[in-house]
């Protein structure tokens, strides 16, 4: 029988609806980040750097890009005969086929996978955060405290605490109370959605609560373990951790990478972030172009001016174009004479000549004021923008647009174009 001390289960099924048009065709963990990475590269790299060589990746929403990206796990050294990385979509059972209905339900549906490795401990991770963390140190903490469940927590400003699951602990870090998104939080220790369970405790909780609709760790499993008198401990983490779940935080986290001394360093030798990049030609920056404080991806052709931006691989920026404070993802093409400011332009998008993006005054979004609440122009993947149009701030576009979509050649701030067949 195979025996693994700890295996990881990585929840990567989320739609990421607060990223708007960026996730209309791709799962949030597969969204590009920092030029050449995807969000899921961070927890996967953390696993292999922490000595965890068995990872189940639970997919659901738009899994194709994610599956292709992970493949058999070669970039993360997770192509193993025993263990390695396995992509675990919801599967049909004879009596009932069902989607994953909650984070814990997804894990429950994969009990057989976990049983195969007969682990002592199971690490539960979320596939949509940017951070570096040594899970082995957290496991040592779990063992030292003879814990049943260890929850990674980090201090957050008390005024933001109501957005999180909050832990109230004693001086030994034992969790006394657990509040899920409380209106009046009694602590500022927020759950990071990273859990280590002793395997028998996890299995018992999952089986007991298997009939619970939408069974979720924060809402059901953790409170159940607490009620059962299990030993729950909070492992405090003080490093860089970013939930890139909104357009604003996603843009911000990318912009932080280009600080002169970035708070989050992607290029440390001792804790590498691995990705499936393939082999790409070197970048070309023409002699009349200008690049300042930016990340430029491999195989990109820059013939314009780029300031404070994150440019992915294989991007083309035409002559006379100026790009500022923007994220341009892999394979996007920007024609000549464009001016682009504070925009997120997704993969494979083609922008015509003399296009201005991000111009004007901020106006509330007509599409979804909660999602589009930042002064960013967001363009979904494989979209097409015709020549000579002006696009305002806080706008959203997805699909193949034509001049007729822009009255007087403009898309006003706060407005949107979502073509039929594309979802916002």
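^ structure tokens above, recovered residues below v
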């Amino acid at each position: 029988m195979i025996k693994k001390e700890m295996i990881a289960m990585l929840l990567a099924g989320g739609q990421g609806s607060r990223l708007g048009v960026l996730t209309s065709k791709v799962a949030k963990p597969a969204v590009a980040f920092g030029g050449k990475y995807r969000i899921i590269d961070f927890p996967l790299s953390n696993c292999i750097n922490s000595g965890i060589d068995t990872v189940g990746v639970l997919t659901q929403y738009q899994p194709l890009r994610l599956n292709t990206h992970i493949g058999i796990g070669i970039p993360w050294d997770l192509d193993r005969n025993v263990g390695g990385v396995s992509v675990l979509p919801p599967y049909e059972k004879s009596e009932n086929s069902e989607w994953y209905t909650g984070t814990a339900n997804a894990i429950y549906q994969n009990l057989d996978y976990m049983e195969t490795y007969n682990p002592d401990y199971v690490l539960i991770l979320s596939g949509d955060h940017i951070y570096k963390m040594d899970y082995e140190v957290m496991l040592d903490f779990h063992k030292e405290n003879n814990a049943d469940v260890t929850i990674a927590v980090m201090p957050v400003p008390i005024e933001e605490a109501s957005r999180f699951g909050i832990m109230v602990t004693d001086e030994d870090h034992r969790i006394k109370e657990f509040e899920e998104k409380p209106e009046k939080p009694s602590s500022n220790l927020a759950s990071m959605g990273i859990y280590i369970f002793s395997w028998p405790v996890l299995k018992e909780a999952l089986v007991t609560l298997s009939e619970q609709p939408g069974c979720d760790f924060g809402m059901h499993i953790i409170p159940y373990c607490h009620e059962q008198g299990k030993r729950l401990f909070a492992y405090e983490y003080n490093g860089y951790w970013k939930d890139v779940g909104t357009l604003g935080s996603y843009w911000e986290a990318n912009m932080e990478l280009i600080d002169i001394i970035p708070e989050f360093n992607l290029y440390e030798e001792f804790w590498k972030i691995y990705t499936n990049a393939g082999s790409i030609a070197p970048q070309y920056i023409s002699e009349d172009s200008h690049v300042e404080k930016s990340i430029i991806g491999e195989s990109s052709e820059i013939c314009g001016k780029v300031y404070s931006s994150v440019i992915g691989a294989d991007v083309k920026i035409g002559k006379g174009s100026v790009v500022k404070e923007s994220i341009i993802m892999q394979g996007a093409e920007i024609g000549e004479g464009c001016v682009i400011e504070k925009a997120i332009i997704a993969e494979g998008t083609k922008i015509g000549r003399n296009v201005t993006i991000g111009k004007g005054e901020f106006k509330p979004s007509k599409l979804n004021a909660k999602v589009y609440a930042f002064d960013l122009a967001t363009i979904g993947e494989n979209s097409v923008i015709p020549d000579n149009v002006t696009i305002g701030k806080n706008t959203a576009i997805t699909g193949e647009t034509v001049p007729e979509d822009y009255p007087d050649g403009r898309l006003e701030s706060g407005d949107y174009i979502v073509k039929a067949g594309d979802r916002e």
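The first strand starts at residue 6 and ends at 11.
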